[in-house]
Amino acid sequence: MGFCPQWVFDVCSARAAQEFISLDLDLETYAKKYEKGLSEHYEVVSYSLVYEAAEEMLRFLDEIEEEAASECLHSFIFSRTKFESKGKVRKLKSLLSTALDPERDLNFYPNVTTKNFRGFVFSLRSKNEFFAPDGWNISDEEHIEWLAELINQELSLFNSI
Q1: Could you list the mean pLDDT of each consecutive 10-residue stretch along the chain, which spans 161 residues?
Q2: What is the pLDDT of residue 158?
Q3: What is the spatial distance between Cα 54 and Cα 128, in angstroms, rounded to a whole number?
Q4: Closest CA to 11 of 29, 43, 38
Q5: Smallest Cα–Cα separation from 58: which of 118, 148, 145, 127?
Q6: How remote is the C-alpha of 114 from its chain's centroid?
Q7: Degrees, nearest 5: CA angle 45-136-34
Q8: Cα 104 from Cα 54, distance rounded (Å)
């Protein structure tokens, strides 16, 4: 089993932050959801890393007094899913592999997620073209079924006990 790709870690951390501000459980519970789900496909991804990245995103959004925090996080999830870098479309499936395939080396870090998110938000503020299209949902994307299922998995109060 290999390691989680940075873009998958970014997406999960952003979704944990978005769930925290949109739903009613604590951030640690959402981080543990992603630890469990990601660990089924990759070497263990500690919830503390997801928590750290999500918390830094939320702190940044608070610093800049962003009123549309959930929309920013949703658009970041869209961007990291659909694009490798500015304008370069992510190829989710090729002949022999998918974008979800484990990486050989550990290459995901909360500080890189924070850097990616900060840069994205500044781009979003300068150009509206980076917003996720109305109605976009990760479950509409092909070749990333298990990730979409993880992201759309609902938690209840019993998960936090």
Answers
A1: 94 98 94 96 94 98 95 95 84 82 90 95 82 91 92 77 54
A2: 63
A3: 23
A4: 38
A5: 118
A6: 11
A7: 15
A8: 25
- Would you give the DSSP letter of residue 5? P
Partners of 3 in the β-ladder = 103
Give the other-Cβ count within 10 Å of 64's Cβ. 13
What does the block give as tokens for 100? 């979800």
Record the tokens describing residue 65, joined without a space: 């007094």
Please classify residue 60 by burial: count the beta carbons closer than 10 Å to its beta carbon, then call 0-12 exposed, 13-18 middle and 19+ buried: middle
| Spatial separation of the C-alpha atoms in residues 98 and 143, rounded to whole Å | 7
Q: CA–CA separation, 150 vs 71, rounded Å?
A: 20
In what helix (H) or strand (E) does residue 106 lie, and over which residues does it extend? Answer: none
Tokens at residue 1, please?
């089993």
For the chain, what percentages of helix, strand and coil (3-state, to nearest 5) are there? Answer: 60, 5, 35
Buried b or exposed e, range 84-110, using 16+ CB within 10 angstroms: eeeeeeeeeeeeeeebbeeeeeeebeb
Domain residue spans of the chain: 6-94+107-153
How many whole angstroms separate alpha carbon 41 and alpha carbon 7?
Answer: 14
Helices (H), 23-46: 27-39
